[in-house]
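Think of the structure tokens as a kind of shorthand, similar to the way a musician reads notation: each symbol stands for something richer, in this case the local conformation of the backbone. In the example below we present two proteins back to back. Begin with the first one, reading the sequence and then the tokens, and try to describe in your own words what changes along the chain.
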Amino acid sequence: MIAAIAGKVTEKKENALVIACGALSYEVLVPLSVLQRVQENQDSDGNVRLITYHYLQVSPSSASPVLVGFFNKLERDFFLEFIKVSGIGPRAAVKALNKSIGAIAQAIDRGDTAYLRSLPGIGLQRAKEIVAKLQGKMGGFTLMRDKVAEPVGAQKAGLKEEAMAILLQLQYKRPEAEAMIEAALKRATEIQTSQELLNEIYKQRTKA
């Protein structure tokens, strides 16, 4: 069992790092919150140390060892809780955790399925299962400060998806909801949250 890995980062990929350890190089899967903090955690020679989750991925024709890396034990512990949810394997979890683990833990704690649905690969049913399995177990995870800087496009896409889910629940038709969302974003380009977006939609409807 590989509990940790230390070496020089030689390559960054989408959700993965290649780390050289002597004559060997290892590919380590990492969530976005880890990937974005590599530089601040490297020493002057470009070396980094990751605490790892090591598992064997088995298919009908092969079995491959896989490493998932984190900067501290708390991040790894959250990951281990997350993959306890039925249907979420380690690779799926790495992709899903594309936002701050602290923010995801807070969403689970408050039962915010709309926020959880904004994670890659997490639909409504899976979001409900995450809350059912993990709510009340987030403890110190909610205090983590592993901020993730999302591209503006990704932020807007997340806002739209969250607002759309709420408007559909309120019985608006999808084309009508899409038109209201796009119009609101054009009027108020500084919008940062889905609540602000919905407030802008409400303000414009009351003026109409």
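Once you have a description of the first chain, move to the second and do the same.
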Amino acid sequence: MRVTEKGQVTIAKHIRVAAGVVPGSEVTFAIEGGKIVISKQASGIKTDRRQQLRAAAAKARQGMSPEFSQTHASDMMAFLRAGEPAKP
């Protein structure tokens, strides 16, 4: 792996997957015995935001009529924009 002029490297996909590093993950760098060690932080803000959004969406769905909660998102957007069904 080669370091760019800006000090950047690409983490190989199999390593990212094994470590659970996804876009938006926070990592820390440390030097241990002359080696650079990259560690994923336990809890990231992005993960918390996703959980908050899922909880808010679930709460919003509870207040919807059964017909409306079964409506496809594209139909909802069309309804909100022009009041006409979306075209497939």
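Compare your description with these statements about the second chain. The helical segments are 13-19, 45-62, 66-69, 73-81.
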